Amino acid sequence: MSARDVLEHLRRLGMSGYEAKAYVALVAAGRPVNGYEVAKRSGVPRSTVYETLGKLRARGAAYEVRGSSDATEYLPLPPEALLDRMRREFDGSVEALRDALPAVVAAPEAHLIHNLTDAEAMLDRAGDVVAGAHSDLFISIWPEEMRRLRGAVLEAVGRNVEVSVAWFGDGPDAPGNVYPHRYSAPETVLEDLGYRLIVVVGDRREAVVGGFGGGTAWGIYTADPAVALMAAEYVRQDIVLQVLADRVGADELDRLFATDSALLRLLGRAKGSEHA
């Protein structure tokens, strides 16, 4: 991790830019240093370095000591102790807000739905859905996207969420109850659709649905329970089809799709792509 990354993470945890630079300078010095040296090492302006050090002292991230010349010098709180303290403060704030925020939230006038226009935003929102699931998750996913979500899905399995995955990959490389998509084969699906479809549904109340292909990504997030239920049913029915193909054989299913009048009526002219 670069020095710039360290500073960015400290800012995310509540330090200002100057505070982060001054703290890193104190840690890197390895001995007590005065304000002038902190400014020199960190790039914090001399006009503000003592104010910055005062803020670090106020948050307990630095301490004043008396040097050999009786001048004021500064030592950092060791990084391990600082991170433990930040974690405790962060967790305490999260727990407090968990009770306080719902009390001020107005009832929505309509169920939330919004567009997702890039891969990062879509996978972040899908991760939110996985993290928020309490009872069940229905997921249709390819290995490229599962690599990003695997940790969150593993955590869901660990908290006893029922996870069902329609898996467009080779081998059981996804957490949960995994059903490899062999009918039709993943390469056939990709050729028919032209993109990798992702569906992630949490508790049948919120969902992310989208596609990845050609270097772009697009999709939606919705908290409309009707839409989420339909998305869950899409994944569930696709899984049922994979299980049936395993049980009775793909050839027998092909024969049914080609000869059964009810199936022909429902499928119309979509034969060849209906299993996607």
UniProtKB/TrEMBL annotation:
InterPro entries: TrmB-like (IPR051797), Tscrpt_reg_TrmB_N (IPR002831), WH-like_DNA-bd_sf (IPR036388), WH_DNA-bd_sf (IPR036390). Pfam families: TrmB. Residues 10-80 form the Transcription regulator TrmB N-terminal domain. It comes from the Bacteria. CDD domains: PLDc_like_TrmB_middle. This is TrmB family transcriptional regulator. It comes from Actinomadura fibrosa.
